[in-house]
Amino acid sequence: MNSLRNKIVAFSLVTMMAVGNIGAINAQTSANTKLKIKKESLTIVDQGMFSAGGIVVKSEGEFDPKNQWEESGKGQTKHADHANVFYQIPKDEKGLPMVFLHGYGQSRMSWMTTPDGREGWSDMFLRKGHSVFLIDEPRRGEAGQTSVVGQISDKTLDQRWYTQFRIGKWVNGKSVPNKCSQFANDDKSVDQFFRQMTPDTGMKSDMGADFDKEVVAKAVAATIDEVFEKTGKKSILVTHSQGGGPGWTATKYTDKIAAIVAIEPGGAPGKETDDFKSVINRKIPVAFYFGDYIDNGDPSIQATGMWKAMRETTYQFTKDYNAQGGKSIVYDLPKEGINGNDHFMFQNLNNGVIADHIENWIVENVK
């Protein structure tokens, strides 16, 4: 899709929006809840796509146009390791732009919809007056061109990730979500959930051990600089899971981050690290969000202990950050009266409740 930067093109996107008493979609909502929905228009005045960051690799030698199919690639270039960004700007824009970075095995689709076909956070925050910029990070999704050799795994790992994401237990070939889960658990939705998984073209490890945080961070920073060029505004960076790491590091490469909202990041930087020092030097407000089944998770499942440890790093970050004059808070959703959320809270049945919570934090803390 060509950028519409120099045009104002208004059109209506017909979307499906949950209505009724939003407060009713809370901790006690079951995965089988039938949501009443209505059609409501959302007017977009500009949308498009662009690539941000990346490198150009050039091989030695001289390219011969008369022998274009020779196999060595001598004298030729490769544009790689960039982010691909889809953006939308709403008619009633009143808040800061929001840049969304997905986690491991995911793409920007994570933010655009839910496995059961409801609105994702991208539409929800558009309705709240934010322009949204959705990243496919380098070597993922529509930014798949890589400068390094990777290997896409053919292992059957769906249940590993189902367990890691604290959705529930896989029993006799079926998804059995945790008690009071907000996961949409009908067969079609479970199938759609697994089909979101997106391979990384630059990794050889199926656990992300060779994930290049620096490459992603530079592309995220380049995206945020491009957003500033487009809008004249700093961005709120929303990260998820593995995307949390590059989010901290990106602060070394851009001063245009207004706030960071970290959704269950894979840890937070310690106070002696360069990432911590970069974030505190810029005095960026930070909010962490963690879902359910951590304190009350099954102790026999490895993920329970891992998520406790990950969350503990955010408590320590917040203590150290606030002591140095920063502003950070950890929201443990069950303590906020919001229960039943797994690692994909932005796709759960009560994703609108959490979006409202985040918007309230933004209004109160981000200038």
Automatic annotation (TrEMBL):
Keyword annotations: Signal
Keyword Signal in annotation: yes
KW Manganese (keyword) present: no
Signal peptide: 1-27
Family annotation (InterPro entries): AB_hydrolase_fold, Carboxylesterase_BioH
Protein origin, superkingdom: Bacteria
Protein name as it appears in the record: AB hydrolase-1 domain-containing protein
Organism of this sequence: Peptoanaerobacter stomatis
